[in-house]
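Quick check before the chapter quiz. The format below is the same one you will see on the exam, so make sure you can read both the input and the output lines.
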Amino acid sequence: MEKVLRNLLLLCVALALSGCAILGKLNALSQNNQELDEVATIVGTLPTQGWPLGDVNVVLLDVAATRPLVIASCLLNEGGFFTFKTERSGQFQVLAFHDRNHDGVWSRGEEWAQSERIVKTTAASERLQSTTLQWQSGEMSAVLQKELRHLPAAQRSNLSAGQIRSLDDARFGEQPADVGVWTSLKFLDEYGLGTYFLQPWQEGATPVVLVHGFGGYPQQFSSWVPRLREAGFQPWVFQYPSGLSLAVSAQALQLNINALQKQYGFKRVMIVAHSVGGLVAREALNRYAPQTPPVSALLTMSTPWGGNEMAERGLKESPEIISAWHDIAAHSEFIQTLPQSSLPPDLHHYLLFSFRGKNRLLNGNSDGSITIDSQLQLPFQQGARQMRGFDVGHVEILHDKQVLDYALTVLQCANGKACH
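Here is the expected output.
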């Protein structure tokens, strides 16, 4: 995060350099922010009844006028997810049908589903609106039948859960992560957002979801994946554009976990999160209240529980704002409300912090990126089952053998094995 902010605070120098990379990024960020202000996203899941994903067409209807109007269509993605970009203000309904004859339109006799409610988007509403669909047994109305005769070309949903990818895939590297910081919408269009399997589903092996931080990427967990497999876990990675609002990413993580549990029936899942990824994971868990999440352990490393003062400085001094800064900034509403919901007693939080490093832009001791004070906010200390500090830097904590050994010990304990 400090690298991004240093670049912005040195803008006065960059302005003197024609074609400077930071200027291009600022222009891209400006365009990204303008589009973010204009759009909302409607997301949901639909049980596929075992049909191929490409055989289920999902349609978005504008229902603000007297007659519903089809404005977009998409195909389901892994996990049964669909997504639509919409205007920030409107009223919408979602329909789906099983395209048995593969003609691209609804035909009489094909199964169809409808959203349980009208989705209303406003300038003040959350940018990510979720809805659920239910398969219908009755006849579709003549008005809807007429609308579904001519559909726009279907796009693939950019939210998914359960795609199998190799960790060596370029999408999990540093370059896409940079795209996700500066142009979150471009990232969603090119790479999508979701939880990825690194090998086929393994019955009986507890999943561990690895969540990267701001500007981070799944390949930073390269040393964790083989060790987790050796210990009997199945590692998954949650990839998201880290410049996007943390609340949106957290909601997507929660939806992913719900969809995968429904599909595979696992009893427990664990989350390992680095830096800002810990904020995303905790907010995802908070969203379950008052229900209990199917998560038995949360292990966080170097997480800025008290926010980041550099993000706060960026909000005041940067000519363009990365959306995530509004949440990450010290004293933000997101940071202040995060500890207000307690974790369930049987959900163990292991809080790891790092303390090697210096940063002249930060006040107080730090690990080079996050102050120790922010990592050790009292409400999170009090809610942690165990807490451990390591003499490593902010990113180094992901590659330290002592950290990984400790993490595997506590995760195995939370998974029901003998605790030491």
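If your answer matched, good. Residues 8-20 have pLDDT under 50 and may be disordered.
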